[in-house]
Design brief:
single chain, 2,3-Dihydroxybiphenyl 1,2-Dioxygenase, domain 1, seven-stranded mixed sheet, 42% strand
Length: 120
């Protein structure tokens, strides 16, 4: 069975999740699906924005490589394809994460993180 690509969701850096969720709600009409001190998921229609807290230190810069999440259905075929391409190692598929996903990730040449994610 083939992998179905469902959506792509940017993960944006944030210094203050509470402040930024309020801004997105007021200024863009995005509703909160999930929020804690470190991470938030916002939605408007079929669009999603993820916010991730960063300390803005040398070890955890606020600005730097971006993160995208590509959501799929049936993750195994695309994972196997990316292993064959040499993009990821065979031990990188994380099944049943605490946030109820199956996923793997890698970096592009500009240090942008790309995650392939399936709802578990």
């Amino acid at each position: 069975m083939k992998t179905t690509l469902l959506e792509i969701s940017p993960v944006m850096p944030s210094q203050d999740i509470e402040r930024d969720v309020a801004w997105y709600s007021e200024k863009t009409g995005f509703d909160v699906l999930h929020k804690d001190d470190m991470y938030a998921v916002l939605k408007r229609d079929n669009l999603f924005i993820h916010l991730q807290w960063h300390a803005d230190t040398e070890d955890d810069p606020l600005l730097g490589g971006s993160v995208i999440k590509i959501f799929v259905q049936n993750i195994q075929p695309i994972f196997e394809e990316f292993v064959q391409r040499g993009t990821v190692k065979p031990d990188k598929l994380r099944l049943g994460t605490p946030w109820n996903t199956n996923e793997f990730g890698f970096y592009d040449l500009n240090n942008n993180a790309i995650f392939i994610v399936e709802d578990a």
